[in-house]
Amino acid sequence: MRTQVGIIGSGPAGLLLARLLHHQGIDTVILESRSREYVAGRIRAGVIEQGMADLLREAGAGERMDREGLIHAGINIAFDERLERIDFPRHTNGKVVMIYGQTEITHDLMKAHIDEAACIVHYESPAMRVEGFDTETPRIVYEQHGEQKELVCDFVAGCDGFHGIARKSIPADKIKTFQRTYPFGWLGILSDVPPVREELIYANHERGFALCSMRSHTRSRYYIQCEIDDKVENWSDDAFWDELRRRLPPEAAENVTPGPRLEMGITPLHSFVAEPLRFGRLFLAGDAGHIVPPTGAKGLNLAASDIYYLSRALIAFYKEHRTDLLDRYSDAALRRVWKAVRFSWWYTSLLHRLDGDPLSRRLQISEMDYLTGSEAGRTVLAENYVGLPYEKFE
Ligand code: FAD
Ligand code: PHB
């Protein structure tokens, strides 16, 4: 089999890239290890920056998002029995974020790409390795129905997430990685109950961090900080709701509507960056190249900004025979990645129970008091949260 751009992974990064290239007449084939149902059912992110929303529209997959997504013009920060709101438009020249689940985005991209445009995604076809990425004909070796096959490409996009094989195909002396694992996790619940408040609440509490998020006016998503080795089996629905309430200020706690779980899961928190993101004709994008703790809601949005740069570079190659943007991809994408890695680390450190050390806690409270009480502090939080601008890339 042969294609122009072979894409490993049909998460948001892979699907978005395939859609944007298809619009320019560039052929792709996506190889995905899981089934379509499994990929469509994964519950993850919920906060979309304006840059990503614009890309989804460009990809012809923004219509339902514009109809059903919720525009949020601020977030709330709870600490020390206080609840402070950060107004986004006021501090960012009018920017906002969109609340629209990754599950819905994946569904919309699949519908546009597979059902409407009849483009090729091979599910249950795990890539095993990438070969010849320093030649003009890189190959993806993959498995399908128990047989080993090969996809020959002009370029390979490794959009196969943190545990994928694209990054692992690179010899260790050609790649540098940076990582941190945080000493706690997030226990999350999804439930068909109305959200506590119209906008998200990020709560710093002495019992640990809590986050009130949502998918719609009738579906809520909540997270509480938990022990790194905690298990879902340790938590009944009632125990979750009780612990959530304890960590919120009273005016929010009394608005919590408990309900049965649709899903409950535990997420570990990591920071990770691989450098560079380009190896000859193999490009890493999204979680394959970097991950951040979810506190800043940046992971999915970084996958989108990588695809913004990568799609433009590939389009310039096919339309104008230019290679300069391909050469600049890694640096441009990583500049934005590192800023989001820094923001996510900082915001995580600000909001979580660290080590029970009383001085660290007082410093957190003092920092939040400063941030929410100063125009400069509010601006720092708002402009990072709504998403830093994409660099001009043409
Ligand atoms: P993935 O979504 O991981 O997709 C990779 C795909 O590759 C998968 O489908 C996988 O099955 C496939 N694959 C893997 N190996 C192979 C192989 N060998 N062959 C073929 N296919 C393979 N981000 C935000 O921006 N905002 C948020 O609010 C937010 N909240 C989050 C909450 C939680 C609980 C979690 C866990 C994450 C959250 N994130 C958030 C992060 C976000 O979900 C990820 O950053 C995003 O999914 C990255 O997309 P991706 O396409 O790069 O990778
Ligand atoms: C979510 O709704 O899943 C969500 C929202 C904000 C975050 C992380 C996750 O920071």
Task: Write up what this structure looks like.
The protein has twelve helices and 20 strands. The longest helix has 28 residues, at 324-351. Helices cover 36% and strands 26% of the residues. Helix 1 (12-22) packs parallel to helix 6 (102-116), helix 1 packs parallel to helix 9 and helix 11 (358-373) crosses helix 12 (375-386). A hairpin with a 2-residue loop joins strand 5 (74-79) and strand 6 (82-87). It is an alpha+beta fold. The protein has helices spanning 12-22, 36-41, 50-58, 63-68, 88-91, 102-116, 237-246, 250-253, 299-320, 324-351, 358-373, 375-386; strands at 5-8, 28-31, 47-48, 70-72, 74-79, 82-87, 97-99, 120-122, 127-131, 139-144, 147-152, 155-158, 176-191, 201-203, 210-214, 220-227, 263-275, 278-279, 282-284, 290-291. The strands form four sheets. Strands 6-5-14-15-16-13-17-20 form an eight-stranded mixed sheet. The protein starts with a strand and ends in an 8-residue tail after the last helix. It is globular, with a radius of gyration of 21 Å. The site of P-hydroxybenzoic acid (PHB) has 10 residues, from strand 15.
Descriptive tags:
alpha+beta, binds P-hydroxybenzoic acid, 6-stranded mixed β-sheet, 394 residues, globular, 8-stranded mixed β-sheet, binds flavin-adenine dinucleotide
